[in-house]
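Deviations from the work plan: none for this task. Representative record:
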Amino acid sequence: MKIPKPAIRRLAVYYRCLQRLKEEGKEKTSSKELAQRLGIKACQIRKDLSYFGEFGKRGVGYNIDNLLEKLKAILGLESVWKAIVIGAGNLGKAIAGYKGIKEQGFDVVALFDVDGRKVGKKVNEAEIHHMDDLEEFVKENNVKIAVICVPKESAQQVAEAAEKAGVEGILNFAPTVINVSVPVENVDIAVSLKSLTFQIIRRKGKEK
Amino acid sequence: MKIPKPAIRRLAVYYRCLQRLKEEGKEKTSSKELAQRLGIKACQIRKDLSYFGEFGKRGVGYNIDNLLEKLKAILGLESVWKAIVIGAGNLGKAIAGYKGIKEQGFDVVALFDVDGRKVGKKVNEAEIHHMDDLEEFVKENNVKIAVICVPKESAQQVAEAAEKAGVEGILNFAPTVINVSVPVENVDIAVSLKSLTFQIIRRKGKEK
DNA sequence: TAGATTGTTAATCGATTAACAATC
DNA sequence: TAGATTGTTAATCGATTAACAATC
């Protein structure tokens, strides 16, 4: 079955909302409650879930623990994903040190940089290695994900090196399109800012 | 006219690609060339541009300088946008110190945090202020954009404070939905990672 | 039973793409 | 003129939403 790309991102959002509901001590919820919290339509939530199965009880709703387990399996979060951060600048170090990522089932096991002076330093438990050691490290440590935090000029080259080394997916923070055969997710701060300024201007135009 | 939301983000990507072409010394380009660089269809580029006017010459293509100017106006980049970063943790400091943002017409003029020990320290030229001084600072300095880098628990409250202080748009890095009346763009690292793991798993399923 | 809420179908809406006349 | 490339229309494709039977 074809699954809309936006539906996947929403599943991840539902997952987080369910975690929150659980923290609040709730045991069951409904598409209506989730929809209200997230500002979307209830039928969209039901539709998104229906791509993968029937997880609720009619007339009752969803058991939170159960739905969390199901989403965990769908999103591939049953085991911890080993990741590396390439580019140990401010952003790379911030990502590597970000606790939220570990909580969500991702483990940044090392950073890589071309700057020899950074090699050996640590960000939490993760050590900074030299780029020359990338391939060996990825293979020996079974790293699955590379987070690219290098300047745009070297992003394509770094992505190719990561793919060659054997990573299976790339999270790209560099402001450029990268072309590899493994899946890539882009986090584009500059583009998001520009989309924001466009909306601000449009909004002002409409106010009048 | 209704403009597809994805089209706006693509305009920002075209803008960046044109900057790159210019750096390479080129003076003209075509929808075909841009499409090849960006891995999308040429007719999509022409369609996206057509929402805003006619910027090319039939049989010839686009003048890069001219198209850059037009996109600059569309995206609202003709003047510098003053921004603040709220939350002076690792991520907040990394964003504030990120040179790419300044190059693109955004100026982070200050950071804010509730931790008094951080107050007075600097990230490049931007000083860290206490949250209590947010409203006064925003008003006096004509700040338009707030970048939220606080934990999810305080994100909603901080967003409301920023809105009340007078910012016109919010870039939200906190992993939660925030509800305000000004435009919000979300940069959701955890969601992007989960979307990535879903794709990795699906891809493996198909290979067999 | 009556009320609630799911899962799913069908309708609507929105976005992308193909195709081509216009024109440089 | 011949070749190239735009701008735009119409067709297609994909995503969202409304509505409701199923059922707890």
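The mean pLDDT of chain A is 96.
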